[in-house]
Amino acid sequence: MSPCRFTPSSSKYGERFTAGKPLQQGSRQVGRGHRAQYRVWKGECYDMHSDKRTRTFEQREWYLPTSQILIVDGWDVLAPLTDVIARATWK
Length: 91
Fold this sequence. Notes:
By secondary structure, this protein is mainly β.
C-alpha cells in the first residue's frame, strides 16, 4: 500500500492500480533513433477505512530497453512531458 499521490501526507488514503493489464500499450518513438515500450495504467486513490474510491488517475510509462531508462509520469502531464521526451538527447 502506498499513500495517495494527491494527499501524500494523509494516512487515511491509499493508492492502487485497478487493471490487471495496461489501458494502452505499444511502442513509441522517443527522440531521434530511440523506441520505448509505452504503457498507460489506470489507478485510484481510496479511503482505507471505507475502501471507497476518492479519485482516479492514469500513470504513463516509457521504458527504453537498450539504455534501461524508465520514465514514469504519475501525474499524466500530457503535452509538456511528451514534448520533453521527444526533444531529449540520449547519450
